[in-house]
Amino acid sequence: MTNKYLKAVLVFSIFIIADSVFAQGPPPPPPPYPIDGGIFALFAAGIIYGISKLRNKK
């Protein structure tokens, strides 16, 4: 009887420990303003537009 009880307690303990070991916290929040290729494309377009305005001014 005690042998079955001991096995049951060990199995239950292993499940509880394994559950707490593999548990993860929540993922971090995303950054408020993601910077992707669009920002760099707009920056390059602005530089090209500025250069063309300077050439047309001369």
Chart the SSEs and their pairings.
Blueprint: H1 2-21, H2 37-57
Structure, described:
With 58 residues, this protein is an all-alpha fold. The protein has 2 helices and no strands. The longest helix is centred in the C-terminal third of the chain and has 21 residues. It starts with a helix and ends with a helix. The mean pLDDT is 81.
Short description:
With about 60 residues, the protein is mostly helical. About 70% of the residues lie in helices and about 0% in strands.
Strand element count: 0
Largest sheet: none
End-to-end Cα distance: 100 Å
Per DSSP, what share of the residues sits in E-state strands of 2 or more residues?
Answer: under 5%
List the defining traits of the structure above.
mainly alpha; 71% helix; 0% strand; 58 residues
